[in-house]
Give the backbone structure.
Amino acid sequence: MRYLATLYSLLCLATLAFGSGRSIIRSRQATVSLDSIQSNGLQNIVTWDKYSFFINGKRLMLFGGEVHPYRLPVASLYLDVFQKIKSTGMNVVSFYVFWGILEPKRGEISFEGFRNLQPFFDAAKKAGIYLVARPGPYINAETTAGGFPGWGSYTAGLWRTSNQSYFDAYTGYIKTVGQKIADNQITKGGPVILVQSENEYSSWKSPYAEDKQYEQRLKQAFIDVGITVPITTNDAHPNGHYTSVDVWGYDSYPNNFDCSHPTTWSAAAVPENFWSAHLQYTPNIPNAVYEFQGGAFDGWGGSGYETCAILTGSDFERGMGLSIISGWSFSDMILSLLQERNCHVYDLFESLHGVYTSYDYGSAITEDRRLRDKYYELKLIGQFLAVSPAYLTMRPQNIGSSQGKFTGNQALKTTQLLDVVGNQTAFYVVRQTDASLNSAQKYTLTVSTSIGNVIIPSIGGSLTLNGKDSKIHLVDYLAGTTALVYSSAEISTWETIDGKDVILLYGGTGELHETAIKTSSTPTVVSGSGTIKTKSLSGGVLAIQYITSGQTVVQLGNTVLYLLDRANAYQFWSLQADTTSIIVKGGYLLRSAKVEGGTLALTGDLNSTTSFEIIAPSAASQKVTFNGVNLEISKTAYGTLTAKKSVTLPDVKIPDLTTLTWKKADSLPEISTNYSDAAWTTVNRTSSINPTAPTTPVVLYAGEYGYHTGNILWRAHFTATGSETAFKVKVSGGAAFAHSVWLDSTFLGSWEGDVLHANYEGTYSFPAGRLTQGSAHVITILQDHMGYEEDGQSASDKFKSPRGILSYSFEGSSGTKIDSWKVTGNLGGENYIDKTRGPLNEGGLYAERQGWHLPGFDDASWVAGKPTEGLASAGVAFFRTSFDLNVPVGVDYPISIAATNSTTNPYYRAQFYVNGYQFGKYINSIGPQKVFPVPQGILNYQGTNTLAISLWAAKATGARLDTLKLQLTAKIESAMQSIILQPAPAWSQRKGAY
Ligand code: GAL
């Protein structure tokens, strides 16, 4: 690490008087000189000091979210997601790169189809979003094998260590992907500002410990391939692992992942050790939280993403998010408050705590790109940080000693943050001592200000903090030329427009707030029904007291105050048109503002007829257009503009899936008498490096034969002794997996799956009298592969946990031998066929091997049959239909496939394919997911679409889908860029398909 400037002087910590109750704590002697600006010596565009990052010499708060491009396989939708993020005030997105889908066959790396990263880089750049690349090689991410390729399961050596064979395994990937990232670094005009090495390299299976050689080599591998921007890492907790990167940081998930109890918070959800850990490990770099909970994953049998959205909703963003920004821990960089992790199936299932198809995460932006309420709450935080540079050089003064401080109320904790560089502004972050409580607390805040000690509110009354809430009270905050001596109401944003400081202040509905301003003017309510009380304080300061309810506008001199309740504050957007700042109220989403020759051109999305209030320089808003349509504008009494945009959301015809023509075919010919498995892979390995030592004569782990995903089929040929009564078999597939067993064409039984079992031993009785001595038979086993386990604990090699058959025996006949075993998964295994849709799109069902799921397959010879009619016995049926969509352009109408729960014959699982892309796995008896979003771009909104469904009935009584439909999840007029269809190659005869 090289210091660009070495001037360094001591931070004189403020003298803190933490007495009981109302201690006055404010020191103006906290002075800090220019601390050293540091770089990694490889470039000087992205630098840092102990307070924050700098980009091109400009200090800035990096505040952002997480997006996984591989979970949204429509490249032309990336810009939509980035623009939505940008409009919250955030400026950065981190993203994982999934090694396993890029190098499914060792040595053959492909960026084909949705795996191409370049459109992601380009869209970020276009939206003005910086990127933090997280290429692993290990990523976790609730992704099969935590991102490792399937072939890792049979590759020797402990992974996530300095083991040479692991090094050899990842080197090619790091070189190739590192090069792509390097080409898109900010130093080359791209958006990438940081690269994360490894992921939560934070725990090790005994007797192994942190492997510094691995850390060093991996960091060097990135540098060798041309990564010059700073290298970071995210310790799972602030425990000081892998601090040799340039800017170390850590993760935090204060509300955990139990979405089934979405309102249950632990009393002390976040340990209060983050700041001290930062000081202990890396005091000279910014305190970076690289993952902060933006949502939660949900597993098979879980409670659904809407419950995760509550667990991590607006309350969480305020109660936890604000606190982490400024209170408990204080952070200079936060990623992931928004965890927009669009997902599609691609079998990205973790096991054990396996997650289902969608990875919506309950985040601010839904999987189908709608904005949740928590998006608007996040916008309040993002916009505030974007206009509050003082935050960047603040230091918390009383971490660990905050209970009752400044308020005298022991039920509250208050952290004082002082801008130790600007030496003027202070934030007081108030939160509940017991984070789990829902009850409100009354308090007053005693602080030191530029006019001396003040008790807020000074006009009388008290402030209120609701349960699970948190607030940032401001002291000596400068908004343009307006000096706010204090404000209990929070700022959502402010701008100086036409010489007036327009300041948006908000609080909860009905809350009493007070803002004190240095002014000689008399405030007047110019709009709204709210009233104000005033009191002159010393030093020419006027305190204004009000209730935040609706919207009230107050003018005093060159200052305009918008006094807002939260619902109103949500509606404001802060937009930048080149050098012109604009504030607009109204609209589901505003994306951009542009000024050309006196015309203000706004773009955005509306879900109903919308009234706008536009606060823009008058020279820049002589005319206003919205999405290109001229708005009729009028002026308010206090000079802002109002306009109305009517919205008609066109009706579209969504095909009724039940009335379409469906075709049906059997997808389990493998159990017919004369089926030949000659083309299948012969199971012939007799040893394995797998940590789970095989117990069978030949290794029955599908991964050993190149099958790492989807359905796996096994065939065991044997000659009976005549005394066999049953076949006992232990199959491993990952949580919620199932297996079914046949003797020749006779169904013996199934394990239908549950959320607990990653493997299951079943005993399947043979029909009496069938196995006569010397008769030849075949046992067919169909199983699910739900993805490999993650490898969260380094050196555990847990991701190698086999999928396949762990043991078997014949009851009643210990001497029966299997003459030969055969296996198949997806056609081609690691030489997967569909390079466009990638290696996880297809499994081993007959239909998939033949490509029946693809558009263009000729099903004319198939019988008629609907998935809602299903199949009458155990087995697998495959269904196909097609339908037309005609959705006009200029709207965003997300579409999902929705099923309902079948209560009779519940044991079945279905996979949905849209234009050949696998987009859902529905397990009727486990759930919870019944609605499967399919993005536009996979769905052709102006043309014909192919829908294919596999249905595996696990019981002799068969199964059918209860109902099946396409549904719109929103109707929005949208300025999103037009969608380019992802390539969806049509069926062609597959060479060697069996
Ligand atoms: C973190 C990990 C992420 C993801 C997250 C939970 O520990 O770094 O990859 O798994 O937890 O969603």
Observations:
- The chain has four domains: 34-371, 393-591, 657-666+833-973, 686-824.
- The longest helix spans residues 164-183.
- The CA atoms of residues 39 and 905 lie 63 Å apart.
